[in-house]
Design brief:
The protein is α/β, with parallel strands linked by helices and 281 residues long. It is built from 11 helices and 7 strands. Helices cover 42% and strands 17% of the residues. A 7-stranded mixed sheet has the order 3-2-1-4-5-7-6.
């Protein structure tokens, strides 16, 4: 049986990198539940993906930068966080959030059932809800978005590790759906360049993920500007590479490259990944 059986297994994989960062003496964040959530299979998956093992800093920086964006939006008055494809994220249990915050996790039923089993007895720091839903079911997704939008005043949407598995058309439809809700003020997500997408397909587990029904797809040539025609404008875009350099997470072999200038726009064949905080236009 393959290690990665479906897209949900990527959540175990991501949890491994959070666990390893947590165990550092100089950790950028602490996720004490990550090791338990990843399990043995998470470690096995991570160990089999050699490119990602060498570039673990990118996974760490993704979590770190999302944490920063969440804190920033909470300070601006966000009362609801909608986490699409939440995976095994444990932020409601580990971050300093207001107890009145409404946090909604959306993901596939099997994954959420596993998560609830592992976290049984753990207490979240805010009002946590879980919604079992296949986000590719557009009718049900829109119904959920409308319900959340109508019951909140200021929403931040998260889609960490999701968009790369969608087609450009599907991402555009999702962006339109989110922009349609007036109370959805912010959206944080990660994207990659066409150059990095090609590298991931060839060296980063692309074949294994494609066989599991989760091929890498989305890498807009225009970068974050893709979302302008779908109702979203950038508040902040950060290169994971530059952020890793500042945080001293780059391996020594790559540090020299961090001295070169870098833009956060269109990248073409240049391998690039970024974390974006968007505002509804």
């Amino acid at each position: 049986m393959p290690l990665i059986r479906n897209i949900s297994d990527t959540a175990r994989w991501a949890a491994v990198f959070r666990a390893r960062e947590t165990e550092r003496s100089d950790a950028l964040f602490r996720d004490p539940l990550a090791r338990k959530l990843a399990g043995d299979r998470g470690e096995q998956i991570a160990a089999s993906m050699k490119m990602h093992e060498k570039n673990a800093w990118s996974w760490v920086m993704r979590t770190y930068l999302f944490d920063q964006y969440i804190a920033r939006c909470l300070a601006s008055g966000v009362d609801t966080i909608l986490n699409l494809a939440a995976g095994l994220d444990a932020r409601p249990y580990r971050m300093d959030v207001p107890p009145t915050l409404r946090w909604i996790e959306v993901d596939l039923p099997e994954l959420l059932a596993y998560k609830e089993e592992v976290l049984a007895g753990e207490k979240p720091r805010c009002a946590l809800e879980r919604v079992a839903l296949d986000l590719s079911d557009i009718e049900k997704r829109r119904a959920l978005l409308a319900q959340v939008g109508a019951s909140a005043k200021r929403v931040m949407v998260l889609s960490e590790g999701l968009l790369v598995y969608l087609s450009a058309e599907d991402v555009g439809v999702l962006a339109d759906d989110l922009a349609r809700e007036a109370t959805f003020k912010y959206w944080a997500f990660d994207i990659v360049s066409p150059g990095l997408l090609d590298m991931l397909r060839r060296q980063g587990g692309g074949e294994e993920l494609a066989q599991a029904g989760a091929p890498f797809k989305f890498a807009p040539a225009e970068g974050p500007a893709f979302f302008a025609r779908h109702g979203w404008r950038p508040l902040d875009v950060q290169s994971t590479f530059k952020a890793a350099s500042k945080a001293r997470r780059l391996p020594w072999q790559l540090r020299i490259f961090s001295l070169f200038p870098e833009s956060n726009g269109a990248q073409g064949k240049r391998p690039w990944s970024g974390i974006c905080l968007m505002e509804r236009a």
